[in-house]
Write a structure and sequence with these properties.
8 helices; alpha/beta; 6 strands; six-stranded mixed sheet
Length: 216
C-alpha cells in the first residue's frame, strides 16, 4: 500500500491577487513560504521515500521547503514533473478569477465558480474551459487526465516507495477529490499548503481518506 501525501503549494502573488494560475507561474509570497514551512513541520515525522512535485516553480519550491524539515531529508530525492502541473487555462491564464469563471460558466447559467463547482462535474467544467477559450488551447478533461494519469502510472511503478510526498496545485487536488474521494465537497477548495492523504493499493485502487488538513 502506498500513502501519498498531496500538498497544495504555498500562496503565490497571483493567488493573493485572485487571478487564474495554471501553467503561468509566480513566486511564493512570505505567507506562502511560511505555509510551506508549516506543512513541512506537520509532515516532518513521515518517513518519505521520495518527493514528487509539479515542475512549476511554486510547487517545486514548496516541495523543497517541506523536504528541509523531513526526518529523511538527507536521503530524499526530489523529482519535478510536468505530469503533475495544474490545469492549463489557455486564454484565461492570469485573468481575474471571477471574470474568467463568469466567462466559462455564464453561457451555462452560472455566475460564480462556487455555484458551478457545487452543481457540475469537474470534467464538465474542464470541457467548458476549453470551449470558452477563444484559442481552444486550454486542456479539456480528456487531455488533462491523460497527462495526470501518466503521473500516477509513474507513482504506481515506484517499487519500494510506500510514503510519497506530492506537491501540486489547487484545481488538480480538487480534480483528484472528485475522481477518487468519497463524496468530498468541492466547495470550498483546498487551502494553500493543505494536506490531502491518498492511498494506492497494490492492485491500483485509489482512495482519499483525509483531505484539506493543516496538520496531521
Amino acid at each position: 500500500m502506498k500513502r501519498i501525501y498531496i500538498v497544495r503549494h504555498g500562496q503565490t502573488y497571483i493567488n493573493r491577487y485572485n487571478k487564474m494560475q495554471g501553467w503561468c507561474d509566480t513566486p511564493l509570497t512570505t505567507p506562502g513560504i511560511e505555509g510551506a514551512e508549516e506543512a513541512g513541520k506537520a509532515l516532518s515525522e513521515v518517513p518519505f521515500d521520495i518527493a514528487l512535485s509539479s515542475d512549476l516553480k511554486r510547487a517545486s519550491d514548496t516541495c523543497e521547503i517541506i523536504m528541509k524539515y523531513n526526518a529523511n531529508k538527507d536521503e530524499l530525492q526530489h523529482i519535478a514533473s510536468s505530469f503533475f502541473r495544474e490545469q492549463f487555462y489557455g486564454y484565461f491564464e492570469g485573468m481575474d478569477s471571477e471574470m474568467a469563471w463568469r466567462m466559462i460558466g455564464g453561457s451555462h447559467g452560472y455566475g460564480t465558480r462556487q455555484e458551478m463547482f457545487a452543481h457540475e462535474s469537474i470534467d464538465t467544467i474542464k470541457d467548458w474551459i476549453k470551449e470558452a477559450d477563444p484559442y481552444h488551447q486550454a486542456e479539456n478533461a480528456e487531455e488533462y487526465w491523460a497527462r495526470l494519469d501518466d503521473g500516477f502510472k509513474l507513482i504506481s511503478q515506484l517499487d519500494g516507495a510506500e510514503n510519497i510526498l506530492l506537491v501540486t496545485h489547487g484545481f488538480t487536488i480538487r480534480s483528484l477529490w472528485y475522481r477518487y474521494g468519497d463524496h468530498i465537497p468541492l466547495v470550498p477548495g483546498p487551502k494553500n499548503a493543505s494536506i490531502t492523504i491518498m492511498t494506492m493499493s497494490e492492485k491500483g485502487e485509489i482512495k482519499i481518506p483525509k483531505w484539506n488538513l493543516m496538520h496531521l
